[in-house]
Amino acid sequence: MKTIIGLAAALALSAGGGACAQDALKPDTPSILAWSPEQQSLGYRTIEDFYKVNTIARGEQVRPLVMAPRQIDPTFTHDGKAWTVASYMEAFNVSGVLVLKDGDILLERYGMGRQPADRWTSFSVAKSLTSTLVGAAIQDGKIAGLNAPVTDYIPELAGSGYDGVTVRQLLMMSSGVKWNEDYTDPNSDVAQAGAAPVEAGLNPIVGYMRKLPRENAPGTTFNYNTGETDLVGILVANAVGMSLSDYASAKIWKPYGMERDAIWMVDTSGQERGGCCISMTLRDYGRVGQFMLEGGMAGDQAVLPAGWVSQATSRQIDNGAAGYGYFWWMNESGAYQASGIFGQSITTYRDDGLVIVINSAWPRATGPDLSAARSAFLDAVHAAATD
Fold first, then answer.
1. For residue range 13-39, what is the model confidence (pLDDT) as tens digits?
2. Over the stretch 172-194, which tens digit does the pLDDT of each residue have?
3. Cα–Cα distance between 146 and 239 in angstroms, integer?
4. Which residues pair with 357 in a beta bridge?
5. Is 208 within a domain?
6. Is 303 inside any structural domain?
7. How many domains does the chain have?
8. Average pLDDT, the chain
9. I need a surface site. Which of 3, 279, 367, 373 has the fewest CB within 10 A?
10. Nearest to residue 150, comparing CAs of 276, 235, 239?
11. Given this model, what pLDDT does residue 48 score?
12. Three-class DSSP category at 49
């Protein structure tokens, strides 16, 4: 199996920086993209000590995750070497692996000093949760539907390149608005957006992006755009009349039964970054995957519209790889994945009832060697879980 991080990884660094930058608590905080291994190990677990965050509150009830009678401990061969779960985790700085089959735990391991109650930051895995909150807002009647104009919910974009762009086209990363995500270019949009002058009373990412020109017809061309994922977060918050954290709490954390409050990094205006950085426990990552696998149901409550999960997690546009849904990546094996740099992923095999969570602190944001090793590991876990 080839993992779907593909194009997102190739575009590098898209999850962690630029766009509407996070708000550091101390002015001398180094970029999260350049943390040392020691800073990663501590900071990914305690992001609230470095950046401003909002809380996603859990509820009174916790959905149990029960150990399955059969536990797995797969081995595999990759790059001419035999691997175990333990050796893979040590070599690739993995802080947690969780495997759920039909909602029960087949494998749960921790590394790097992480404990079960410790959270870990998501990087771009947050994008997939943001798109899920769009579905919740449609179900609640707060967003008229996927074909609703973006300008209905962010009116400051009227008269810009976003005129005529729909919610669906944003979720497909196909607005047609010109955007350069090249992190090696100091003049790229992703580098400039976070440093743009702030207009009074206007979210800084909205202020930057409403000045961008149209390049392609909406809905025709995939163009990975972290700024637009932050825009989607603003759109949801405007539509529902509350913060993304409060809405995530009301729609998922409380009704589904997450075990610990999560935290969501905010930008310099105090708005949660729709494209980055929710911190949660390993088991709560698994519950996010299980929530999607169960069709967006929390008990007998339909949080998402009928058919939403199937549509969001299937190919909606050609991205030069296996396809892209609504902030979810497809792969050739039929799995879908939420992906974040430095080795974060929730990989779900819908036909097998299988969810695999990996949290890591890779030495680089991405790379073909890192992705290939994770693919081999996922293949081995999938084979062991479905044997």
1. 333 345 556 889 998 999 898 899 999
2. 999 999 999 887 788 999 888 87
3. 13
4. 98, 346
5. yes
6. yes
7. 1
8. 93
9. 367
10. 235
11. 98
12. helix
CATH number of the domain that 225 lies in? 3.40.710.10
- Residues near 277 by Cβ (< 8 Å), separated by ≥ 6? 15, 16, 22, 47, 51, 121, 122, 123, 126, 264, 265
Per-residue tokens: 1: 């199996």
Show the tokens assigned to 38: 């020691």
User: From residue 302, how far is each of 28, 135, 249, 292, 296 by CA, in Å?
Assistant: 45, 11, 15, 11, 6
The residues assigned a catalytic role are: 124
- Residue % of the chain over a pLDDT of 70: 95
Which domain, by its residues, includes 234?
A: 6-386
In a domain, 282, yes or no: yes
Quote the pTM value. 0.94
- DSSP letters, 105-172, are EEEEEE-TT--TT-EEE-TTHHHHHHHHHHHHHHHTTSS--TTSBGGGT-GGGTTSTTTT-BHHHHHT
Q: Which two tokens stand for residue 308?
A: 């939403």
Q: Which residue has the tokens 């759920």?
A: 100
Question: Does residue 1 lie within any of the structural domains?
Answer: no
